[in-house]
């Protein structure tokens, strides 16, 4: 029989339908048996009044276990007493497609590590699955904006011949008779695409960091959203692209999932106003120091505490959850960030903070070969043609337009949008220094 | 000044505009200088009539090199003699944003390996860039269908704790104090998502194969399109999903790029009729043997020659470029493919051939724990709880619905859609046993 989704049942009252899903809860009494069946659209009560001898259906229900996969055929009956939508199914036939072993390995009290061990069971809870419905919507909105803006969707390689950006924090792969490395970001490749005449690059893909970090914001593998734009007039073009993309994403999330997010996670999705506030790093540091941050006065970069403090400060003043921090010192940015025309100690770069967490790093890039080589050498890097940067630097020798872009952590966006306690809850299967399973 | 794209120039005749792009060709004569400038939307002729002494612009143009990145400001003038759209730009100002070194490392005669070495220069040719415009369209259409069909977009991990599907052909990664492996497909993970109550899974992401293959169809890293559908009635549901997805993709490709593909690559994009032809493996083998294939009569699976022959045969008879081959013997399919109810030696599986090349493998999966374990053991695999399949098999212990899905190679689709000679031309940066650069 054709499957009817639980969410469609209100329109099916009076009809006989087939519902497919999992046994959410069981209440098996001597006279009446209640089975709540759950699919990805909701839950419905299946109510069977026990017959006497020969009540095969009643016997079957008596042997059911929670989380078994079942197919239920029966009549949809309005019943105002039933909490789940004021209707129930009076079953004619129930098929146990796949019985669950009795005694589930996780329950409501289970701690986070054990929940990750049994992630597929954890995911059956509607509020967990919601994360990936939101993810789907976020990506759809981002791609919509990317398409409007003329982006080409690329898949840059994750296997690299040299550990180019920085030797540390890179995973090494056995590659036939040699070594390969897992890409820590699509940075160099997306710039290569710009050198290849692709006007605007968009990619959503995995990023690998061999970082032994155990914070709630770090993972060794995560999904990055990367954008690179050719022929920009300045870094402002990059920020303006990103804020429009995020606004569209949150708009669509609020529209489709806002009510559910608030119900399950207690978070209201705020659609941000454009433009987002902008603050130079010099101003930010001054404001933060006034508020007591970095009492030694030695920090050149924001630390997580500074990010939280600054975000809170901006939100208090402007009511805005986002803030672009711009003009980071060259000392704390990679060699390929463009230096400001007025002050070579400052870069045309930005971070985007949301609710106290950095979700993006972006910049205009240095596109002039000579300056780029000089900046690499200044950072103590090997800029020779046979060195690890050789192939990358080649891209600047035959006409490279001005360009810039950003990288955004998708998991962090989801974590913040839903108010999840950790990035572990915002990805399908978390990967960390101690976790490669399941 | 605001950039005007070359493709927009016909609407700008009589106006002064700024165009940004690369020097495609130079013809510098004593009286007139012609510079053809190319951006991602087309090419335009810039025509400067040389003045006498003090013609600074003429001097600048005299020093230009091919492939330099330039910004040209000038008046758009209709000129029916000009081949490039009957118009030209009379320049007022030309800025060389990034000069190309003289003497490009590749030219029209360059062989494939050297072209790959300088991939970014190769990509500047419009027919090369077209591949990625088509890719963007294909993905957009596929995602459209996936969204209509209620798919959730997932990112499954590429780092795995065990080399689960098969020990061979897997890349090993140094992972802190232990080993990790690169996923050869999202197969087990997308089934885990089904076990997690995600109704329909969609993913586009990288896939890694440590296969020392040097054919035109193989790469060590490629982009896979993966779909997995819960609660199917049979493998037919999976094929029907895939054919609709491919039809929509080719429809949109034909609409947006058909003319350009035909012009640049000489291939007509055919929008396939639904349903695609279907042929059981038993029939296929019989037909092929009648045509002289496998004279020893020993093959149980199709080889590339068989695929070509079969495709040609079906196209001759039906006029259709695609064919689903169904019901492969269990001996040549993985342990998790569902066996046919009538004949356990046959699986509920399919391959999809297009123009003689296999682009997809799909199947309904065995969802019953006991049978799955038995089938794994039958293939000589360790099905114990601590073995490499332990975590995967756990997913079947607590209620697994009937499900099935497929994996599609995006590069192969592009290669065939454009008639490219090799997969190397269908990916941004090819990775093979001998190639990790650039």
Features:
alpha+beta; OB fold (Dihydrolipoamide Acetyltransferase, E2P); BirA Bifunctional Protein, domain 2; 8-stranded mixed β-sheet; 16 strands; 26% strand; ATP binding (chains A, B); aminoacyl-trna synthetase (chains A, B); ATP-binding (chains A, B)
Summarize the structure in words.
Chains A, B: Homodimer. Chains A, B: It is an enzyme of class 6 (ligase). Chains A, B: This is Aspartate--tRNA ligase. 2 copies of one chain form a homodimer. Chain A has 438 residues and is of the alpha+beta class. Chain A starts with 15 loop residues before the first strand and ends in a 20-residue tail after the last helix. In chain A, a hairpin with an 8-residue loop joins β4 (69-78) and β5. An 8-stranded mixed sheet of chain A has the order 6-10-11-16-15-14-13-12, sandwiched between helices. Chain A contains 11 helices and 16 strands. Chain A folds into 2 domains: 6-98, Nucleic acid-binding proteins (OB fold (Dihydrolipoamide Acetyltransferase, E2P)), CATH 2.40.50.140; 119-425, Bira Bifunctional Protein, Domain 2 (BirA Bifunctional Protein, domain 2), CATH 3.30.930. The radius of gyration of chain A is 27 Å and the shape is elongated. In chain A, α4 (126-148) packs antiparallel against α6. The first copy, chain A, has helices at 56-62, 112-117, 119-122, 126-148, 187-195, 235-265, 281-290, 304-318, 369-378, 390-394, 410-418, and strands at residues 16-28, 32-39, 42-49, 69-78, 87-98, 152-153, 159-160, 172-175, 178-182, 200-208, 221-230, 278-280, 322-326, 349-354, 357-365, 403-409. At the A-B interface, β1, α3, α4, β6 and β7 of A face β1, α3, α4, β6 and β7 of B.
